[in-house]
Amino acid sequence: MISGNPKLISPATYQSILEISKKMGLPGTFEGTKHQWVISEKDPWLARVFLPWNATPDNSGNLSLKDDFHLALVMIRAGIAVTGYFHNGEMLDHKVFRAYMVRQKQGKSQIKYLKTKGKSRAGSRLRLGESERFFEQINERLQRYAADYPITTWGISCGKTLWPYFFDSTTPPPFSKKQVNLRSIPFHVQQPDFDTLQAVHKKLNGIHLLLSDEGRRKFETIAVSVDSKPEQLDQDDW
After folding, report:
1. pLDDT tens digits, residue range 64-115?
2. How far is CA 27 from each of CA 22, 41, 160, 198, rounded to the nearest angstrom?
3. Taking the CB of residue 20, how many other CB atoms lie within 10 A of it?
4. What are the φ and ψ backbone dihedral angles of 186, each rounded to 5 degrees?
5. CA–CA separation, 228 vs 207, rounded Å?
6. Taking the CB of residue 12, how many other CB atoms lie within 10 A of it?
7. Of 211, 174, 224, 193, which Cα lies nearest the Cα of 77?
8. Best CA proximity match to 234, nearest among 16, 27, 8
9. φ, ψ dihedrals at 31, nearest 5°
10. Residue 183 above 90 pLDDT?
11. Pairwise CA distance, residues 104 & 84, whole Å
């Protein structure tokens, strides 16, 4: 079983995890699609380490920063979205998008409403038009990033119900659903705005640890340390 949520750890704590796993003979592997270092014993995993997106591990899990890292993020919820472009940790562009997509009385997004009630009324057609333009504007911004910068990694947070409208927009995104350098943002995004963009970017450049129940027993000293003293780390600490 999984114990708790991923917790921020320091580079020193991560190195301790690598050393302990090596002494115990526990193999570690890199899962590129999730950008995680996974320590396991036979089949079950013991520890999953969410690695910084601006770093890459060697065969032993040791991290090194990428020299020229171009990151573009997009986070979408019904009626609000944000995009951002970062080069080597510095935000160089961002944009918040808003649209009239929620029916006031029901509090339901127009896209969800259309699945059950159709789009006959004038208000529904207006909201649908706003929704279509909403995704076009987002993708226009992303297309500009792709044209202006050599994007290393794209990061996305978008509810599955919105994926068809995002990817099938008149103006499509500059990447496909299964593109190798497209990653899902592994943190919950409630309100995609400027503050959230900054917070998520900081998280993506940190190291986060998730332990299974057996992993907590194997890495008891690490688990106790992380639980008793949450670490507030700056990007440059490592």
Report:
1. 999 999 999 999 998 899 999 999 999 999 999 998 765 544 445 545 544 5
2. 7, 7, 34, 34
3. 17
4. -85, 25
5. 17
6. 10
7. 193
8. 8
9. -100, 100
10. yes
11. 29
- Output the pTM of the full model: 0.83
Structure tokens at 87: 């080069």
Q: Smallest Cα–Cα separation from 14: which of 5, 6, 25? A: 6
Q: How many residues does the chain have?
A: 238
Contact 155, 183 (CB under 8 A): yes
Q: With beta carbons less than 8 A apart as the criterion, state whether 54 and 35 touch.
A: no
Tokens of 107: 């509090």
Cα 30 versus chain centre, distance = 17
Q: How far, in Å, CA of 125 to CA of 105, rounded?
A: 17
The DSSP-derived string for the chain is: -EEEEEEEE-HHHHHHHHHHHHHTT--EEEETTTTEEEEESSSSEEEEEE--TTEEE-TTS-EEE-SS-EEEEEEEETTEEEEEEEETTEEEEEEEEE---EETTTTEEHHHHHHHH-S-SHHHHHHHHHHHHHHHHHHHHHHHHHHHS--SEEEEEE-GGGHHHHHTSSS--SS-TT-TTEEE--S--SS-SHHHHHHHHHHHTSEEEEEEHHHHHHTHHHHHHHHHS-----GGG-
